[in-house]
Amino acid sequence: MLDIFFFTITSLFLIAIFLTDALYFSIPDELVIPAIVIIFILQILRKTPTPALLIAAAIAGGFFLLQYFVSHGAWIGSGDIKLGILIGLILGIQKAILALFIAYGIGLLFATALIMFKNKTRTTKFPFGTLLVAATLISLFLGDDLISRYRALARF
Q1: Distance between CA 87 and CA 35 in Å, rounded?
Q2: Are 40 and 89 a contacting pair, CB within 8 Å?
Q3: Residue 153: its pLDDT value, please?
Q4: Is the pTM of this model over 0.90?
Q5: Cα separation of 56 and 85, whole Å?
């Protein structure tokens, strides 16, 4: 029962973040910080190992923090850093890395198509949080299967 509640609350937060970023190019603290706190509490109640969650949150958030500093905020907004922390808390390290690969892969394809067919440029703003949310949902519900398929292919 707790798992169903976790997946429902997680999905609701992610959908709200998706819509907010898509409509306003923003991931507000008023949305993502409560999500971080509530998801962390739910993960503890689900008996998910806390050190692993904190490491995953630090790695995913740190990945975006590094991009933020390198680009002086041009590539990634501060909301994406907090979303990275949330992604780590939701998925753990393996699925969080999978979500990042999915989001950046889809982003590359989408940006290339926009540049080729719509006369957009490399500097056109795009709500990347939407791709991160979509990739997080894919990883949350299909991640174990995708990872096991990848491992099977890697052995081949």
Answers
A1: 10
A2: yes
A3: 87
A4: yes
A5: 8
